[in-house]
Amino acid sequence: MNEETANSKKHQSPYAGRWVALVRGRVIAQGGTPEQALRASLSSRYKEKPEIVFMPANLSLPPLLDRIKNALPPEQEIYLVGGAVRDLLLSRLSPDLDFALPSNGISLARKVANHLEAHFMPLDEERDTGRVILTNEDGSHTFLDFATYRGAPSAGSQLSLEEDLRARDFTINAIALNLQDNTIVDPLDGAKDILAKVIRACSPTSLSDDPVRILRAVRQAAAFGFTIDKPTREWMKQSTGQLGRISAERLRDEIFKILQGPRADASIRALEMLGALSHLMPELLKMKGVEQSPPHIHDVWTHTLAVLDHLDHIISGLRVGYDAEKTNDMFTGLLGLRLGRFREQIAKHFADSLNVDRSHRSLLFFAALYHDVCKPETKTLDESGRIRFFDHDMQGAEVAAERARSFNLSNDEVERIHAIVKYHMRIHFFGGRLLTDKQTPSRKAIYRFFRDSGKAGIDLILLALADLRGTSANELTLETWTAYLDIARILLENYWERPEEVVAPPSLLNGRDLITELNLKPGSIIGQLLEAIRENQASGKIENREQAMSFAREELSKGSAGET
Question: Does the model's pTM come out above 0.85?
């Protein structure tokens, strides 16, 4: 290798993934596109005729791209675009792939679907966008979207790839990969912003063009550990007033992605500071500045954000594969030691989503965000001057459910959120009894807890632990934390290890049995007797059919089950 070549290699090495202009083997200019590199070279060496080449980037391309390329017609102009390219540059695996091409998005999507033996659907006929749906071995799906170029065309010209990229939200998402030769097109220097860990709008109108991007910027900043540059933050603030023109479904989807991702507490705080929260969930802002008595050390709003943070750490501390010995936090270490045996059951609990479009985890975080929403309305002072919030749980459940319905969540999701907020004080009652009277929950209390909460009981346990840590923070004692972990362990043991004994005893009698043998008429008394029998089964006082019928007769004779 001669000195000139060596110098050329040396000079080229910082330009991986960029287009460069070479004159006599030396880099004289660079750009995110061939045109940018050429223009930059002409500004300084206008008499020279440079060679424009692409400096290969070290990208680990998914094998699926080769399968897609094999389905394409020869010389088809098509680019992988958006978040998938960003993720490649971040060495991440993107779950879905978006492609941009000059025309015939729907027909090309159909052709790829046929080649891959996958499902096809026209996604947006007006914008000529088709979707290919691949079913993976584990039953999950990968979506491949094929769309024609979008943006603002120049006068008398067709839309181009660069115009498509410039019309996108942020520079980190405005990068394209040419499937034919694996070159990168990056007109807005998004790759540089990825290296700098900065989120920057593609244009001053990016946020006003589509205000839902305000939420997306906050979410991606948290997801990647990036910062949002100052001009973009200002444009976000200026555009919050336009969130009202965005559909409830689009807002909901971004909010739940935020709640699903890392640092949900920081993201919600950012939305509040930007002025966006008043257009999304204004009832939450009433919690700001509302004082609470000890052991609370925060106002209600700050406490709520702390609960989100601790809930994230608690769920992480109980995930499968988490090594409790590596944590520096004593409370997290104890969490793993006391509840670690339930890791797989907890993972399965969260995998059982109530809606294919939203995770179970995000639903719990939504409920956590609303668990104290009605403390401002219920705040009172008792005779000793202590602040009380009577029935804030009951009223808060209604407010949370109303907001969930406004976001068009399913009935099952609304019911789950309602239950979590409504019963979130139950475990605090159990914890108080154990700390004050050294009494653990009785079998009947455990039965009633899960009877009322159902599967939300698991969510309530995790929320209560986060609520406790968000209440006392560094002032939390090991005694109190251990007591709550004991309550959690008892409840989880009964739910997963003794369900037929305590949580859901098998039916010994049905309504027809009671009507026939006790000469009763159909009515509410039947349900009351059956429920009383189940409670006594859970308590261990009734073990067979004969005892159940005897108990029912005794209840009727006392008149305690209602009128016959």
Answer: yes
Report the SS3 class of residue 28.
Answer: strand
CA dihedral 227, 233, 236, 238 (to 10 degrees): 170
Residue 547 lies in a domain: yes
Q: Exposed, middle or buried, 459 (CB in 10 Å: 0-12/13-18/19+)?
A: buried
Do 68 and 50 belong to one domain?
A: no
pLDDT interval class at 11 (50, 70, 90) = very low
> 423-446, pLDDT tens digit by residue?
999 999 999 999 999 999 999 999
In a domain, 564, yes or no: no
554 located within any domain: yes
Helix or strand run (H / E) with residue 219: helix 213-224
Three-state SS for 416-434 is: HHHHHHHCCCHHHHHHHHH
Q: Is there a single domain that holds both residue 327 and residue 433?
A: yes
Dihedral sign computed on CA atoms, order 25, 29, 33, 35: negative
75 and 160 share one domain: yes
271 & 385 share domain: no
Q: How many other C-beta atoms are found inside a 10 Å radius of the C-beta of residue 537?
A: 25
Contacts of 50 (CB under 8 A, 6+ apart): 21, 22, 23, 28, 29, 37, 38, 41
- Give the tens place of pLDDT for each residue, 450-467: 999 999 999 999 999 999
Tokens of 82: 């958006």
The upper half-sphere exposure of residue 149, i.e. CA atoms within 13 Å in the direction of its Cβ, equals 21
Pairing outcome for strands 119-124 and 184-185:
unpaired
- Are 406 and 431 in the same domain? yes
> Other CB atoms closer than 10 Å to residue 159's CB: what's the count?
18
What's 111's DSSP letter?
Answer: H
Phi and psi angles of residue 198, each rounded to the nearest 5 degrees, phi first: -125, 140
Burial of 430 (0-12, 13-18, 19+ CB in 10 A): buried
Distance CA 294, CA 298 (A): 9
pLDDT digits (tens, 9 = 90+) for 170-187: 999 999 999 999 999 999
Which residue range forms the structural domain that includes residue 164?
Answer: 58-196
Can you read off the two tokens belonging to residue 546? 């004969």
For the chain, the domain total comes to: 5
* CA–CA–CA angle 320, 445, 523 (5° rounding): 115
Question: Are the C-beta atoms of residues 161 and 149 closer than 8 Å to each other?
Answer: yes
Residue 563 lies in a domain: no
Q: Find residue 355's DSSP bridge partners.
A: 358
Secondary element (H or E) of residue 123: strand 119-124
Do 224 and 315 lie in one domain? The reply is: no
Is the domain of 342 the same as that of 419? yes
Q: What is the Cα–Cα distance from 236 to 244, expressed in whole angstroms?
A: 14
